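WARN retry 2 of 3 for item q-0093 after timeout on previous attempt; input resubmitted unchanged.
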Amino acid sequence: MNPFLSLGLEQMRLALAAQEVIAHRLAALASPGAFATAEYEKMIVEKMFAPAEAMAAVIAASVKGPLSVVETSRVVTGAYGKRIRANRRRLRRRARSAA
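OK item q-0093 returned
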């Protein structure tokens, strides 16, 4: 498979997962309470650290040698994807327990 195509598909899956996280967070932030406040704070902290984590992942991967554009994009997508998938799992569990 074309590396750009497979990368695009992975980024599309990541975008769909991010949309689910956004929907869960909006629902949580719309309801008052301690969870909304904690989720808001968690979200802000993640927004600050996510670029640094992605950059650290690229630096760690490039120690082995120069990375192509596709390889760099995969590393960055993987770093953000790890965080997004973890949030999706956590928020899904929360939504199921609240229902």
